[in-house]
Amino acid sequence: MAEASEGGMPALLSGLRVVEIASDRAAYSGKLMGDLGADVIVVEGPGGHKTRGYGPFVADKPDPDNCLWWWNYNTSKRSVVLDLETEEGRESFRKLARSADIVLEGEDPGVLDALGIDHTQIRSDSPELVWVSVTPNGRQRPDLHEPATDLTILAGGGLVWNCGYDDHTLPPIRPSGGHSHHTASAFATLGALTAIVHRDATGVGQHVDVSMIAATNVTTEVSSIDWLYRGATNQRQTGRHASEHNTMGIQVRTKDGGYCSNPLGLTTAGNYKDVMEWLRELGLEDEFPEFFFLQMGFDRGGVPLKVLGVDVEATEIYRAGREALYLIASKLTTPEFFVQAQERGIACGAVYAPDEALADAHYRFRNYPVEVEHPEHGRSFTYPGLPFTGVGIPTAIRRAPLVGEHTEEVLAGLRDS
After folding, report:
1. Strand 235-237 vs strand 240-243: parallel, antiparallel, or unpaired?
2. Region of 332 on the Ramachandran plot (φ > 0 left; ψ -120 to 50 alpha; else beta)
3. Residue 43 sits in which domain range?
4. CA-CA distance, 363 to 370, in Å (whole number)?
5. pTM to 2 decimals?
6. Looking at the structure, do residues 202 and 132 belong to the same domain, yes or no?
7. What Rg do the C-alpha atoms of the chain give, in angstroms?
């Protein structure tokens, strides 16, 4: 587990114990809390959880201890093997759960209840316990037993409808695999920690019921609100927010064939002044006949987004600003355009492949990625680090546990307590 943050300070969640029943739905939540310093104990069945069988594997050799999916989603955890089909295993789990601050699980509704180890049965004796359930539809809906996959959850939540291209003869596209699991796990983590704050103030825990489809739906930003309150259907657009109306593109093609995105374009007087100076520095002023529009944007004090499509002059100024960025980008590589735009305070993001992102100086400066030691392999491997940084945030994580690596250690601790 991550026990200390940079500078020797205690890690943010040090002292918090989380007992997680292994699952793909909630694994990322347990990972986040473990990487933040919590003692996360993941409970697996004999032989290891089924997710250890998800490919790919180290050297392409299937092995539950060399599963890259497991490695990624179970850093900074300890593994305990319990057979929950037996009364001995269930009793050990009850003791383990009662030793925890948080229990995290992603089982189908009814599974744990049938085993006698659901939150209603365990929290009756431990009212201070926070129990977090992550299921496709939540525990309260009438359709809670309907089968679901990552794809159906993303589609039902509306996210797929919002993802795709301006050309609507092409079908919508899904985000990367496991996206609904990541989203639900983020809400599970926030819900769990909020419940801990409440428990610390009142002494009372609670059941946090996370619906994956609801979590996905609220990440559609304004699309759900527009539909519910205005009856408006937002349409997918290439590389930018879905909208009821077609909006200007935000991606610029660079000299090396790459792309950068400039989500807000030029909105302030300073933006227009900086772009004029940028064009002059690159010797491009004469190549851009609409340079006068940039001067107008500066003289107006900028162009607020809310007037686009309403104020004709402002819209043309904004469009000219985008055309200026397209011209500049065509003369620079992706990293050059990204860095120079940022230096001028112009919102910009480089579109990188995963290996390019890991090599970027900005990611490396903030300790992302990180090297994680694997003594069983005699070497370290490169991992993605935490998605955020700050005071009390660790800069190191521990490798995922081997099957049952900590069973004796954890169970002995229960016997001694």
Report:
1. antiparallel
2. beta
3. 17-218+366-416
4. 10
5. 0.91
6. yes
7. 25
